[in-house]
């Protein structure tokens, strides 16, 4: 529990925003996988701050060092320890946070839970912690690639600017062609303009990320409590600022009839699957188990809590006071959250592939 | 993993729709709690089939028997085993399901995963399995009551008929006054009429359940992967037919600015909490940890897959065929899902109270 | 944790000596296994009380009922719930135990931990609880049989009467030919005579059980904390009255030189293993992982704490008093512990076979 | 499972003998504890190689770096990541091990399990890995110290030289006064002489470590499978080269009568415990739960497998060959294993204190 994710393929993380380093241990990595360090670093670079005009300007190289579990370029099946040093620590920027609780941050709740907190940059609750998730996700992706499974996320909404078509109508290869990571170039430009405007006002904006998993085999998912979508949901909801998760038809299902949304089975022609469905309202999962169709889901993000205008709040002694953040702020977390969503999905799918193997004699 | 829910307070379940019995084991029940059998049975009765005109007509007494862990009316801290016998088993009703896969049911995915399935009434994937969750939830509620924590869910939408006000504007005591379990009598009547119409057409309809947790202490939630809302999300997503989960502002957050949704802290007057917030966009959870405000969330249900009209499908050999369900069908699962939602929430909150205790010396 | 054993193949148990029933849930049972009910019952009969003159005279049919997870004679991969009703409950026999703590029983420690205890026959701490382990073990054996893995335990010492030869020198098929379950007929007779003498004196006696696992594949065991022998050790130490565990050369290793105990590898001739060892001081496990040789270990049991002579003790209020047990007593637990040892070993090996599968893509 | 130890207080480790570093993540460390770095380093120094004439001559500073979870000298309740760099890596010393399997090492079993292995110095199976355990143990000891719980281990046997008295007859403060870590100065000198002789012959020798836990509260231990002694047993058996574990009377119990070993309860005078026992054959644990008396146990170690004489073996292709280790060898692992035994015990006790808290409302 707590700082470990997964059942068989597990990621245990540590680190605070302004400590020595962030890092973790990946356990259950299958043996004999080629460890492509360039790919792993490139995944980290996708979530690195300062990569574009519409993200936070904190400068971090975020160089990952794998400390174990790899021998002569291949995974050995032993745990992979890794660290990423924190370099750009302006701890003094945060002295004004030491004794008060920032609105809608985790300052108050951490203090209530532990009686002590590292106030610098949000400490453990900082989005910086997601670095470790991207390392785990990159390693999981190396395995999934071998199995022909692809995982691609993209920004589908920022504020009121939303993609209006089904995921299948977009070309995921366009996602990385713009700073906001949206496959629709026109909408991407609008989103970037909105984020720039919000940033100029010292404010922040929310949005939605859509994620699609293709090539997933049938039979993944543990009935009852660990249904595949339930674990994907927990994985996504564990990402900072996430407020909602839906898969397949999601909340739209509430207004539908069974006769409208049932996915009819038909014999499959050609491909490896014996059976396919004519529609995919289910989102590739039935009874908590993958059915071989595309798995797709949407993740809702609230706007980042750090804004540059003065806000009322309360200090440790319970006295009313005010707080104004200064320096860096991240107007929209979505562009950098895209690789985090993919990483959590990749680790979940790999974990469930291994879990499925565990029940086969 | 698999058929066990929770970390410290755990529920392990077993059973199929038409097997001998459904049941489970509750572990981690605190010792010395008065076991109110009448209350436990009354909770089971809330999800029992055949309780009203708008639910399935399967007749089951659903009498629960506690087999251990209770001594002279009090919990002993030892595991509580329990069973509910299946009595109304019309297994022959299901012969026509033996060799084919019903659309949008778990028949195909179970068969792909295990190579064998109990086809009678959906076997393990039947909603009947939620009985065990209600027993676990009832026991958790007995503990939470002592701590002044209340958990109340209600039907907030069926099809296009939706409650339009904030949860705080409804009187939860009215929820049990109608068959659909909606605290707005007018809307409840409309919902019941819609469900009756859908039932007459042999069709089914989806909806949304809202759940509110009051009196929750601060400090519940395990940062990083087991955030309180992430575990609530997994718990809800593990309920049959659930397609989405959101808490606090949920998906609406996507369109908001930070300056609109940040919850400002103010000194608290009178009550036990030193600090409170002027708004509760966060839904009572910040950084994955409870902040003492009301926790509220919404759960989206798809329409039940069993409809009484003929549907295309495929048999085990992969040949196209058709399937028509006959006999009982449940036009809308929401009324009976309300106690299940409450049960999963109650078990999660109790589990996290115990988890929190575990970190205090 | 707590009342669940195993990682992938898990057994969760419940029940007290004089409650309604004992039972549990077996999760992770591979699908498609023929469920031989006669075999399962026969395993329970091996640990049943009253089966011979040298065991307790409590009369229990101990009929097991499987409630789920089996369909048309085969396992479905779904959890198997089971119960065994308690029938011969002389609860009044135990009124004199209600307010005092029996020496070397768990009465005091349960009371200290939970503040309440079911005093009847030791409640949860009774050896009767091992019934559930034998059900789980019997199911595991059904799977292991298919894989050509055999697990056989026998009584190798009672008091000072000990088998003096290596396990390989005895014919395990003779184990069930006598009441004490010892493959050496001569020693068995001496052991039975000793137990009868001890019983007549109202006293009890300890002993040692040896267990041998043949046909175990290589590669079982999780390096670091969950080494195969570490989990076997925990499994055995969790059996009532066990005080010690050793495998391979065990405690004798303390006096040896590396040059005496190293197991030299040689090419294997004929059989399926490419490599074998000329000796097996290691007990079939190296670095916590099975090497394909026989796995063997020894388990030390203390004498049962219930004796029929008066003993000093203290009551709940902390006052000195005396206690004399009357009625049934079990002079030597070993004969009935043999199937329990086998069951824990069988569940551990199956769990590790499934765990190993989990790391293979 | 696998590379994580514990339930609430957990240690997850990584690293190989000749990789970049060894390290891990400690989760569940209670918040607000003063982190005494000097003490932590001193514990590491106790297991460091090259500390005396009777251990391996590998030179390693073994400087530990805590990377997170500590703020202004106190634990924050967040995970503590740590690393110890490997500096003295003579990887080329091991080229002759690359393609063959050393007798009684884990080379063959790792290769069988993973199909690949880091052959340098035993890779993951090296005793060097126990560094991480000592870091976790040192942190646990910092907490236990506050609770008045002491854990002390000592070498009680090397080869045939054994302490013949009960643990209570020795002064643990003398343990650190000699290189072999034995509280009996005379026996210590004999043990050192024996180890020196064995070392000169290029051979190795086994032994036994005794461990005593004082001041442990009542109520620690999870009945059924996670009995306190069962978890202590697993913890000890997970240490390299351990072949056996016994607690209280251990294997001697096999020859005893109940009337000889039952621990009679008597009212306690003066101290905080209401009740005490006149004897302690039980070893401080009854029914798997601590009873407030001293907990003591013995751990048997086999001789280290690395000897300097030529041995037969087999290469990866299955051909017979020979192997002679050269360079460093460790004639007796016990002196350096003493802090490892203490560390595993300390982590187990702290974990169970936190587990116990979890069941108290």
From TrEMBL, chains A, B, C, D:
FMN binds at residues 124-126, 240-241, 287, 302-306, 328. Gene3D superfamilies: Chorismate synthase AroC. Signal peptide: none annotated. NADP(+) binds at residue 47. Its cofactor is FMNH2. It catalyses: 5-O-(1-carboxyvinyl)-3-phosphoshikimate = chorismate + phosphate. One of its GO terms (cellular component) is cytosol. Transmembrane segments: none annotated. InterPro entries: Chorismate_synth, Chorismate_synth_AroC_sf, Chorismate_synthase_CS. Pathway: Metabolic intermediate biosynthesis; chorismate biosynthesis; chorismate from D-erythrose 4-phosphate and phosphoenolpyruvate: step 7/7. Keywords: Amino-acid biosynthesis, Aromatic amino acid biosynthesis, FAD, Flavoprotein, FMN, Lyase, NADP. CDD domains: Chorismate_synthase (cd07304). GO terms for molecular function: chorismate synthase activity; FMN binding. The keyword Lyase applies. Its EC number is 4.2.3.5. Reduced FMN (FMNH(2)). PROSITE patterns: CHORISMATE_SYNTHASE_1, CHORISMATE_SYNTHASE_3. It comes from the Bacteria. Homotetramer. PANTHER family: CHORISMATE SYNTHASE. This reaction introduces a second double bond into the aromatic ring system. This is Chorismate synthase. It comes from Xylanibacter ruminicola (Prevotella ruminicola). The gene is aroC.
């Amino acid at each position: 529990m707590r700082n470990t994710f997964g059942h068989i393929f597990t990621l245990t993380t540590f680190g605070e925003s302004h400590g020595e380093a962030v890092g973790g241990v990946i356990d259950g990595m299958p043996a004999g996988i080629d460890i492509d360090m360039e790919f792993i670093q490139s995944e980290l670079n996708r979530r690195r701050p300062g990569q574009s005009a519409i993200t936070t300007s904190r400068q971090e190289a975020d160089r990952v060092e794998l400390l174990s579990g790899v021998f002569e370029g291949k995974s050995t099946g032993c745990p992979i320890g890794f660290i990423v040093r924190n370099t750009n620590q302006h701890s003094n920027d945060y002295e004004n946070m030491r004794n008060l609780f920032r609105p809608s941050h985790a300052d108050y709740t951490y203090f209530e839970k532990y009686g002590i907190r590292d106030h610098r940059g949000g400490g453990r609750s900082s989005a910086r912690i997601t670095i470790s998730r991207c390392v785990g996700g990159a390693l999981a992706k190396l395995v999934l690639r071998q199995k022909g499974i692809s995982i691609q996320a993209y920004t589908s909404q920022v504020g009121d600017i939303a993609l209006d078509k089904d995921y299948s109508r977009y070309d995921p290869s366009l996602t990385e062609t713009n700073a906001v990571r949206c496959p629709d170039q026109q909408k991407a430009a609008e989103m970037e303009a909105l984020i720039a405007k919000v940033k100029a006002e010292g404010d922040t904006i929310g949005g939605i990320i859509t994620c699609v998993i293709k090539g997933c085999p049938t039979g993944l998912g543990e009935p009852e409590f660990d249904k595949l979508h339930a674990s994907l949901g927990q994985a996504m909801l564990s990402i900072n600022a996430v407020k909602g998760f839906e898969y397949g038809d999601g909340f739209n299902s509430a207004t539908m009839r069974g006769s409208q949304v049932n996915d009819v089975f038909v014999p499959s022609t050609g491909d490896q699957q014996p059976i396919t469905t004519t529609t995919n309202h289910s989102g590739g999962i039935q009874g908590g188990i993958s059915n071989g169709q595309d798995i797709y889901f949407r993740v809702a993000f609230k706007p980042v809590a750090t804004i540059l205008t003065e806000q009322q709040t309360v200090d440790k002694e319970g006295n009313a006071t005010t707080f104004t953040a200064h320096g860096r702020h991240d107007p929209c977390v979505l562009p950098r959250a895209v690789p985090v969503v993919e990483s959590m999905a990749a680790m979940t799918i790999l974990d469930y592939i291994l879990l499925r193997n565990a029940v086969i004699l």
